[in-house]
Every structure is written in structure tokens, then in C-alpha cells.
Design a protein that fits this description.
Strand 1 and strand 2 form a beta hairpin. With 250 residues, the protein is mostly helical. Strands 1-2 form a two-stranded antiparallel sheet. 74% of the residues lie in helices and 2% in strands. The chain is built from twelve helices and two strands, in the order ααββαααααααααα. It folds into three domains: 69 residues, Multidrug-efflux Transporter Regulator, Chain: A, Domain 2; 80 residues, no CATH class; 95 residues, Globin-like (Orthogonal Bundle). Helix 8 crosses helix 12, helix 9 packs across helix 12 and helix 10 packs across helix 11. The longest helix is centred in the middle third of the chain and has 36 residues. The model has no long low-confidence stretch (mean pLDDT 82).
């Protein structure tokens, strides 16, 4: 079957502009009808586009996808997709646990079900780890290495319920203190407190503490928009306030 650009775009749920861009960079080039000279895509192009979108969903850059499609044989591409499928199954199980938690929490609030303390946190840690991986994994590995990232991830997974609750409570207190400091910038004691709270937070997150790494981390909060926005979404300049507090009071 043959598809025009607009038809294949509609089928794949992407824009015609995206397909034209893939053509421009040599990722997926349409064929030309010898008689009418119009561009079209055939079944093999449909298969190629499907794989491109799979790899894109996996987080690969277009240049890397282009290299994969041109240099790796079908068996190697299958191997990559099988690995991705395994990751999707893991993600699905974690999401299922979170869905069950929310459903049971609703029933608990209605008085229809009693939840144990352990049940209240099923899925929450895994979902937080997954979200952190999406947002910050690459940056952490680039700056501190894969070993540091894996050790931190394992440390976080091993937190007890009490430690996990304390960790989340620290994050909330830090935000509230930063907002208070913004409103009262002369409150030096609160600046010292927020620096100490963040020190505790870092220690739990990483499993150990190193002052220089801590200083580097808060510097990074200003250099990387994702980290900066985590704090500044609660008030413009909060990341800067935290950075200054840690540098001045630790």
C-alpha cells in the first residue's frame, strides 16, 4: 500500500512537518512515482517509521536513530527493542502498583478498606525513582559517573518507610523555608536551617555525604534548567537562595 505524506503522518500520529524533516536529514526518505512525480511511502517505510518512533520513545536522539537504522542489522535492532520491551514491562508493573495504591487509598478514605502503613507506600518509591530517572539521570551520570548514580538509586530503593517519609518531609520543609527566606531575606537563622536540611536530604538521597559534592550539586541547580525549575516553580529565585545558603552556612 502507498501513502502520501499527510496519510502516513495521520496513520502514525505525527505531523507532516515531522515527516518532511525526517526526509531532510536523511532519516526516512519517501519514494517518487515515476509518472506523477509525487512522493509516497510504502510498507517498508511504514515499518521503518514505526521503529524510528520506538527508538525516539526510548529517548534516542535522531542522529543516533539514523545511525542505528543505517548500521545495525535487523537482529541488532530486534535486540534493542526486546530490551526496551523488558523495560516497559517493568514500568507497567510499577505503574500497576501505583494504580492499585490510589484505588485502595480512595476506598480507605471512604471507609471501605483498611490499609496497612506498608501498603500506603507501595509503588510510590518506584514511581519517584522513575520520574527522577526521566528528568535527571543523564545529567547525574555525566557529572558524577554511572557508579555514583547506581549507588544512589540502590540506596534510595532500600529506604525504610520511616526514612522515605522523612526524605519527603525534608523536601517539603526545604521548599517552605526557601519561600519564607524569599519573603524575609534577612532571616539568617533560617538560611542556616535550610542549608542543614538540604545536607540531610542529600545524605539520604546519595547514601553518604561529601561537602564538595554538595556544593557542586547546588551550583548545578543554577546551571541546569531542570534542576533550577524544581525549586523556582515554587517561587522565582528559590534555587539561588538555596545555593547561597549551602555555600555560606556549611
Amino acid at each position: 500500500m502507498k501513502y502520501k505524506t499527510s496519510e502516513l503522518a495521520s496513520l502514525a500520529g505525527i505531523s507532516s512537518r515531522t515527516l518532511r524533516y525526517y526526509d531532510e536529514i536523511g532519516l526516512l526518505k519517501p519514494k517518487r512515482d515515476a509518472e506523477s512525480n509525487y512522493r509516497y511511502y510504502d510498507e517498508s517505510d511504514v515499518d521503518t517509521l514505526q521503529q524510528i518512533l520506538f527508538f525516539k520513545e526510548m529517548g534516542f536522539e535522531l542522529e543516533k536513530i539514523k545511525k542505528i537504522m543505517k548500521t545495525l542489522n535487523k537482529e541488532k535492532r530486534i535486540e534493542i527493542l526486546v530490551k526496551h520491551l523488558d523495560e516497559l514491562h517493568i514500568r507497567q508493573r510499577k505503574l500497576d502498583a501505583l494504580v492499585r495504591n490510589v484505588q485502595n487509598t480512595i476506598k480507605s478514605l471512604k471507609g471501605e478498606l483498611m490499609m496497612s502503613d506498608k501498603e500506603k507506600f507501595e509503588g510510590l518509591k518506584d514511581e519517584l525513582i522513575r520520574k527522577n530517572e526521566e528528568d535527571f539521570k543523564d545529567e547525574v551520570i555525566t557529572r558524577w559517573g554511572s557508579n555514583a548514580y547506581q549507588e544512589s538509586k540502590q540506596q534510595f530503593k532500600n529506604l525504610s518507610e520511616a526514612e522515605f517519609n522523612h526524605f519527603q518531609g525534608l523536601a517539603e520543609r526545604i521548599i517552605e523555608d526557601l519561600k519564607e527566606i524569599k519573603a524575609n531575606p534577612q532571616n539568617e537563622s533560617l538560611k542556616k536551617e535550610v542549608a542543614k536540611l538540604h545536607q540531610q536530604w542529600i545524605t539520604i538521597a546519595w547514601g553518604s555525604y561529601d561537602k564538595q559534592i554538595h556544593l557542586n550539586v547546588v551550583d548545578m541547580y543554577l546551571q541546569d534548567e531542570r534542576f533550577k525549575n524544581y525549586y523556582d516553580q515554587h517561587g522565582e529565585g528559590l534555587a539561588q537562595i538555596l545555593r547561597d545558603a549551602v555555600h555560606n552556612y556549611l
